[in-house]
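User: What would this chain look like folded?
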Amino acid sequence: MDKIVQLIVGLGNPGQQYEQTRHNAGASLISILTHKYFSNLKLEEKFFGFTSRVKIDTQDVRLLIPNTYMNLSGKPIAALSKFYQINPENILVVHDDIDLDPGVSKYKIGGGHGGHNGLKDTIKALGNNSDFARLRIGVGHPGESDEVVNFVLKKAPQNEQRLIDESIINCISTIPFAVMGKWNKAMKDLHTI
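Assistant: Here's the prediction, encoded as structure tokens.
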């Protein structure tokens, strides 16, 4: 598990009405990460999203927030990774996760989509390849499965949002380890916070 990261993608929905919603936790992380490394995101039509390029530790890393709806996240990821010849195993996708409580985040290498439409489309767009790493940001569960869609498209109450924001900051502190392929260290640090 010493695969370096060349592309970090933060999933979300475009448009002001979705900013700061649970579903946009991944996009929020990328925005904060971009500022931390003194860069700016700019819209690149050919990649259907907002991109930036930063140096994390000694690694050159592309950042991407798709400008497509969540269920079409794969198109921008496939376009950028193909253009820069980045393999799926060198991609880290950051996304909201209803199976984790607010304040809890976890890394995962490969696996299925777990019903997450953004991951589902990404796997499909990468040629049914699910070898990419994920950073799952917990946003909690509404309790009923038929309430999930409405739940993730809403803003969390202030006490939960505070936990999500803290979790994102904790994630960012471990990203340099992940980027350099030190996955065990990244996981251990994040999972014991």
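The chain has a mean pLDDT of 96. If you want, I can go into more detail on any region.
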